[in-house]
Amino acid sequence: MAGLTAQQLTEFDRDGYLVVEDVLDERDLEAIRSAYREIMDRECANLVAAGHLRPLRGTTFSERYIEALGQLDDMYLLYQHLDISLPMLETLEPSATMSTGKAVFDLLTHPRLLDVAESVIGPEIYSNPVQHTRIKPPRACLPETATDANVAATLWHQDAAVIEPSGDDTNMLTVWLAVTDATAENGCLIAVPGSHRGDTTLHCPGKIFQSEIYIPEAILDMASVVPLEVKAGGMVLLHKMTEHGSLENNSNDIRWSFDLRYQPTGQPTGRDVFPGFIARSAADPNAALTDPDEWAELWWEARDRIVAGQVENKFGGRWNDNATQPVCA
Ligand SMILES: O=C(O)CCC(=O)C(=O)O
Q1: Exposure string over 266-285, b if 16+ CB within 10 A, otherwise e
Q2: CATH number for the 6-27+101-328 domain, one of 3.40.1550.10, 3.40.50.720, 2.60.120.620, 3.30.565.10?
Q3: From atom 7 of ligand 1, which residue's Cα is the shortest distance away?
Q4: What is the number of the ligand 1 atom nearest to the C-alpha of 162?
Q5: What string of pLDDT tens digits covers the 329 residues of the chain?
Q6: Whole-angstrom distance, CA of residue 160 vs CA of residue 169
Q7: Residues in CB range of 84: below 8 A, 6 or more apart
Q8: By the number of CB atoms within 10 A of the CB, which of 33, 50, 70, 320 ranks highest?
Q9: C-alpha distance from residue 314 to each of 17, 237, 270, 275, 318 (Å)
Q10: H/E stretch holding 217
Q11: Is the CB of 148 under 6 A from ligand 1?
């Protein structure tokens, strides 16, 4: 598969999203699954040793993950090792962690993925650091109060609203990759077709975490919402202005995805405290980062700068003034 067809580009322009099946093959998916099995086994052993977890009985990744989250008082003791971003908190511990292994770097720089991104944003491709792993257990296994979009349903938003105003003119593309099938039952993405053609929609500040901004349903065209189902190995492209969220996971199994973002090199990322990198360059192919260790080091250096107070780690604050809007009550 090379890039998108003219027909696919027309659909993306029309709807503000596009489902593209069969981007990654079984070997690509297995590389990710096996890297994540290793992280899970290592971190669960550490949590058992530290007395946070009883030994797990499950055998599959999914069984062990659900069991571990169910036992942990603070699921971030495990989750943060799986996410591909540092925590979006204003203060970070020196030990703040994330998943920066080779399998993740291989995903971020996967040629098929970059071919698709190139069709939309052109041949100078920068990996924007707004990125996450989402491994969502069945809703029934989460505490009722869990609202965090890494594990629970994602509230309505536009990705343009998630970044700082410095990135307002950046041509940022979201590439959402399904590691398991994503269905309406297990919590696939949902979107309002054509919503990318409007202005920025009003967002309310997060109720628990400032970064969890949301668009109230009262101001969305809920009658036109569509589910964006896609099979494992496929992906969903989102325009940065498309109003979207995700459904609850009402299945008995995990729903797993990565959301990655790309933009033309040279434009601001809108999240300056975290590191991006040149993923592909037609003009200067040698400018692309190819070493997974160098990529990981960029993140650890960013963490150290935040911990040392050299940069301000602020997220979502641009919507704080809307707290007084009746629709945000
Ligand atoms: O996977 C999800 O639940 C939400 C992802 C999302 O909203 C995004 O990538 O912008």
Answers
A1: ebbbbbbbbbbbbbbeeeee
A2: 2.60.120.620
A3: 245
A4: 10
A5: 589 999 999 999 999 999 999 999 999 999 999 999 999 999 999 999 999 999 999 999 999 999 999 999 899 899 999 999 999 887 899 999 999 999 999 999 999 999 999 999 999 999 999 999 999 999 998 888 788 888 999 999 999 999 999 999 999 999 999 999 999 999 999 999 999 998 899 999 988 777 789 999 999 999 999 999 999 999 999 999 999 999 999 999 999 999 999 999 999 999 999 999 999 999 999 999 999 999 999 999 999 999 999 987 777 678 999 999 999 98
A6: 9
A7: 98, 99, 100, 104, 131, 132, 133, 258
A8: 33
A9: 28, 27, 11, 15, 10
A10: none
A11: no
Which residue has the CA at smallest separation from atom 10 of ligand 1?
A: 159
Ligand 1 centroid to residue 108 C-alpha, Å: 16
Q: How far is the CA of 189 from the centre of ligand 1 (A)?
A: 7
CA distance 136 to 262: 24
d(CA 98, CA 275): 13
Sequence spans of domains, the chain: 6-27+101-328
Q: How far is the CA of 238 from the centre of ligand 1 (A)?
A: 10
Is the C-beta atom of 174 inside 6 A of ligand 1? Answer: yes
